[in-house]
Design a protein that fits this description.
The protein has 436 residues and is α+β, with helices and mostly antiparallel strands. Helices cover 13% and strands 14% of the residues. The longest helix has 18 residues.
């Protein structure tokens, strides 16, 4: 072991005679047919995991995004994003499908002008506090046996009935005293069901009341009934579209990102299921509309974490999901965010985007499953408008969108720009290695 003799950490992997020895070793039968691929995959994963553990922490500023495919290259289908051991919808869901190769929508210029050509992006998430609450939309992870509690809704006709597994201390968007949207997101492990509520308030005995609520099976792309809201005005799930610190630290975001606009059309496009407006002007964007950062926008001058977020906006785009402040981008609060880095996004303006026509990806109008790159396109349908407006709590532009790190948020003394590359125990790396 020359490396060990020189004081260099090293790993030696061998077959022994305790059950994994190859009986055909150095014999005529020592061929591929007698190899155990699963065994050698596990061996190599253990080796890489050990070396990765020795590598120590990696500064977030050194995170790099996955480069886009070159000319003529097909976009590979990546594994579905995951959180808490659950997929954030299937890998071929529209949220997780790249749109960098799709055509621009014919109304792109009008819709950009409606939202604001000179308005900069705003990260509506970060570290620290704003108005006494965390900056962003939080979530809570609960076990499969989490007790379910009663829940009553103001808009019960478009809500999935309770009970929901909401713990008594579930974090509320904006904090317990918030007068804003007060979203509560609950991710249940095991079942991988996502419970989301809007305008949520605790009641006596552990019960809750909310304006509306929805339950999503994260292993399925089935959409809500046509015309139904959710905890979001567009009738879509919230959690799969939030920017998460761990994704940025890993160097890539593989899903579309939720954002808001102050004026939306009284119409919606796939995959949205609901509108929240009385505006009939077709020059105003409908709910569910996809936008992407133009490929000619240079990202060289941004820090690596900002480039990861902007690269996702270029490759996967943004989905208009609720009424709120223009170009406000949603994410999870996290004390590890560097708010100065997030403020860099302000330099990107509405004119740097384009609306995308995703109609060619639709397979079934009642499903979010998307035709992957290389499929046959279909004509773009007109936005769906319901005969009568549904009672939607977010019908007016939200005045409660948290100002986020663009305002003078209270800094956290524990905020850091460093993150470990992974668990310290090599065995814990194996699921991670299987996704890379």
């Amino acid at each position: 072991m020359p490396f060990r003799e020189k004081g260099v950490p090293s790993v030696q992997q061998i077959e022994d005679k305790t059950g994994d020895f190859n009986a055909h070793y150095h014999a005529a039968g020592d061929t591929v047919a007698h190899m155990d691929p699963a065994y050698w995959q596990a061996m190599m994963q253990g080796l890489v995991a050990t070396i990765a553990t020795w590598s120590g922490p990696q500064p977030l500023d050194q995170a790099t995004a996955t480069p886009p495919p070159g000319p003529g290259e097909a976009t590979p289908t990546a594994a579905a994003p995951s959180l808490g051991g659950c997929p954030m919808l299937p890998a071929d869901d529209i949220w997780n499908t790249r749109v960098d190769g799709l055509p621009a929508h014919p109304r792109s210029a009008e819709w950009l002008a409606s939202i604001g050509l000179d308005t900069g992006l705003h990260a509506d998430f970060g570290s620290g506090l704003w108005a006494g609450g965390p900056i962003g939309i939080p979530y809570v992870l609960v076990p499969e046996d989490q007790p379910r509690v009663p829940l009553r809704f103001e808009y019960a006709d478009e809500s999935d009935p309770g009970p929901y597994p909401i713990p008594t201390d579930a974090p509320i968007e904006g904090g317990p005293q918030s007068s804003g949207d007060r979203h509560v997101l609950v991710l249940q492990q095991g079942s991988c069901r996502l419970y989301e509520t809007w305008s949520t308030y605790p009641e006596a005995g552990g019960a809750w009341r909310a304006g509306s609520g929805a339950v999503f099976d994260l292993g399925s792309s089935r959409l809500r009934p046509d015309g139904w809201t959710s905890a979001d005005a567009a009738g879509l799930p919230i959690l799969p579209g939030l920017v998460r610190y761990d994704e940025v630290a890993a160097g890539v975001i593989r899903h579309a990102i939720r954002f808001t606009a102050s004026r939306t059309q009284r119409a919606y496009v796939w995959p949205a299921r609901h509108y929240a407006s009385s505006i009939r002007d077709p020059a105003v964007p409908p709910m569910g509309q996809r936008f992407r950062l133009r490929p000619d926008i240079a990202l060289d001058g941004f820090s690596p974490p900002a480039r990861v977020i902007l690269t996702a906006m270029r490759d996967y785009g943004l989905i208009l999901a609720d009424n709120g402040s223009d170009w406000f981008v949603s994410g999870l609060p996290d004390e590890r965010w560097d708010n100065d880095v997030l403020r860099e996004l302000r330099r990107v303006q509405g004119r740097d985007f384009e609306a995308v026509d995703v109609a060619g990806l639709m397979i079934d109008p009642d499903s979010g499953q998307a035709r992957q790159p290389g499929g046959v396109p279909t004509p773009s349908p007109e936005p769906t408008g319901l005969p009568q407006p549904s009672a939607q709590p977010s019908a007016q532009p939200s005045a409660s969108a948290t100002p986020g790190p663009g305002a003078e948020a209270t800094p956290s003394p524990t905020a850091t720009r460093w993150t470990p590359v992974g668990p310290t125990a090599p065995a814990a790396w194996l699921p991670w290695l299987g996704r890379h």
